Amino acid sequence: MEYPEEDYLMISGIQHFEFCRRQWALIHIEQQWADNYLTVSGELMHERAHDKDLTEKRGNTVITRAMRVFSKTLGISGECDVVEFVRNDKCGISIFGREGRYRVVPVEYKNGELKQADLLQLAAQAMCLEEMLCCEIPYGFMYYAKTRHREKIELTTALREQVLKDLLEMRKYYNDKYTPKVKKSKSCNACSLKDVCLPKLGTTPSARKYIDYMLSEES
Ligand code: SF4
C-alpha cells in the first residue's frame, strides 16, 4: 500500500508523540503551536546544522544537509539534518556525477540528552532513505550539541518495529481526528503547549461527578 502525499505524517512528530500523545495531536491534528525556551533553542541549533552550503566533501565522505526524505509505504516525510555518504565500494550506492559507491549514514542533531524518541526519529529517517535509495542502513549517528559528541546508533529490528507501532497509532488518531485526553505527567512542566492543553482542567472532576457529589452532600 502507498499513501497519497496529502496524508503523509511528519517524521518530526514521532518525538512529540513519544513525549505525549496529546501534544502530538494538538500539533499535528489541531495545528496548534507554542514555543518555549526548549523549542526555540532546538530550532536555533537546527538552523546551524542546516547550513546553506547544502553539500560538501570531506575526505571520503560527501555531506548533505537538510535533505528532504519520504516514504510512500510508511506515509511519512521530513528532513534529515545531515546525511553522510561514506565511500564504500563494497556495499554502497552510486551517486550521480561521483566516482565509486557510498554507504548512506543519517545524522540527527539534538540539544538535550539521548532519548528513545530521538532514536525512533533517526530510525524513521533511515527507513525513508532505504526506500528512496534502495539500500540498507544498519546504523546512523546522534550528535548532541551540548556535549559536541556523536554516538553511533545501531538501527535494530526492535527500533524499527517501534517506529511502525507508533506510526500505526498515530495514523489511527489522525484518521479519527482524535486528540487524546490529558495525562498529567512530569513532561507537562517542560511542555510548550501547556497553556493550550490546560492539563489542570483535565484533572478536575466532570460536571456529573460534581453534581453527584453536591447532591450526596445535601442528602
Ligand atoms: S501539558 Fe502535559 S498533557 Fe498537555 S500536551 Fe503537554 S505534556 Fe501532554
Q: Share of helix among residues?
A: 40-55%
Task: Provide the number of structural domains.
Answer: 1
Helices and strands, in order, run as: EHHHEEEEEHEEHHHHH
Beginning-to-end CA distance, first to last residue: 61 Å
What structural class do you assign from the helix and strand content? Answer: alpha+beta
Name the average pLDDT. Answer: 89
Which CATH-level-2 architecture?
A: Alpha-Beta Complex
Verbal overview:
The protein is built from nine helices and eight strands. It is an alpha+beta fold and 219 residues long. Strands 1, 2, 3, 4, 5, 6, 7 and 8 form an eight-stranded mixed β-sheet that branches. It is elongated, with a radius of gyration of 21 Å. The model has no long low-confidence stretch (mean pLDDT 89). β5 and β6 form a beta hairpin. The chain has one domain: Lambda Exonuclease, Chain A, CATH 3.90.320.10. Helix content is 41%, strand content 24%. The structure holds iron/sulfur cluster (SF4).
